[in-house]
Design brief:
The chain has 253 residues and is α+β, with helices and mostly antiparallel strands. The protein has a domain at 48-172 and 237-249: Gamma Fibrinogen, Chain A, domain 1. The protein has 4 helices and 10 strands; from the N terminus they run αβββαββαββββαβ. It has helices at residues 8-29, 101-106, 119-126, 206-209; strands at 58-62, 70-75, 83-90, 108-109, 115-116, 131-138, 144-154, 163-165, 168-170, 242-249. Strands 1, 2, 3, 4, 5, 6, 7, 8, 9 and 10 form a 10-stranded antiparallel beta sheet that branches. Strand 2 (70-75) and strand 3 (83-90) form a beta hairpin. The longest helix has 22 residues, at 8-29. It starts with 7 loop residues before the first helix and ends with a strand. It is found in: Secreted.
Length: 253
């Protein structure tokens, strides 16, 4: 008997095929992950995962490949430890997130409070190997939620710093890699936009209203804004109390 299009397992595999192909492409383009002994010529680790597991959370200096040393906050308390904090924001932040392309490129803020590592350094950090990401938001009732993607990469400035994400897990729905036409569309594979460099798919400039982000038309999720941190299902009205973006190497590939 030949295979029928209605065969349940065949339907399932056909649905999963685009995801599998995307995962293979992401894995193929990622280099080998830094080894446990990886250190720059100056002696700094390439990311926070290279710290000793009993190290406390706090400020450290890292140096991704082809990058100058960078001061970051290393989160050694979140599940798995060794997370490099690349973004932190609070609802009533003093930061102005409506910054220029160049400001976003090289980073701004204070690692002790709210900050953006720098889009260029996100690119260099995630080009070292295969990384995963955890997006964390705390709602107005002080409950913490997260969404994790088993692959995370930011491509080069020449290509517009587009976002690449793998498979989703977490305690809510996927609003970054799935298309939501009644909201802002999608974020995966979108280029980064700022007030002075509009790369979104909207007729206007989303970043002028909020801040730099991987916009489509404009957003489902937005963490880079003042007095407006939104994640559907957790803080639909933009009233999340805070956000974090954490990255670390993964062995998914």
């Amino acid at each position: 008997m030949g295979l029928q299009a209605g065969t349940p397992w065949l339907q399932r595999d056909l649905v999963l095929l685009p995801t599998v192909v995307a995962m293979l492409l992401l894995c193929a383009s990622a280099g080998p992950a830094p080894t446990a002994s990886s250190r720059s010529a100056t002696g700094f680790p390439p990311d926070c995962s290279r710290l000793r597991k009993n190290s406390p959370s706090g400020v450290y200096v890292i140096q991704p490949a082809r990058s100058p040393p960078r001061v970051v906050w290393c989160d050694m308390d979140t599940e798995g430890k060794g997370w490099t904090v690349v973004q932190r924001n609070s609802h009533d932040t003093e930061l102005t997130w409506k910054q220029s392309w160049t400001t976003y490129k090289y980073g701004f803020g204070n690692v002790h409070s709210d900050y953006w590592l720098g889009t260029e350094y996100l690119h260099l950090l995630t080009q070292q190997g295969t990384y995963k990401v955890r997006f964390v938001v705390r709602d107005k009732t002080n409950v913490t939620h997260y969404a994790e993607y088993d692959i995370f990469r930011v491509e080069s400035e020449a290509s517009g710093y587009p976002l690449r994400l793998g498979r989703h897990s977490g305690d809510g729905d996927d609003y970054l890699t799935l298309y939501h036409p009644k909201k802002g569309g999608i974020h995966d594979n979108m280029k980064f936009s700022t007030v002075d460099r509009d790369q979104d798919q909207y007729s206007g400039n989303c970043a002028k209203s909020y801040g730099g982000w991987w916009y489509n038309r404009c957003q489902n999720v937005l963490l880079n804004a003042k007095n407006y941190i939104v994640w559907p299902g957790f803080c639909d009205n933009g009233d999340c109390a805070s956000s974090l973006i954490l990255v670390k190497p993964t062995d998914v590939c």
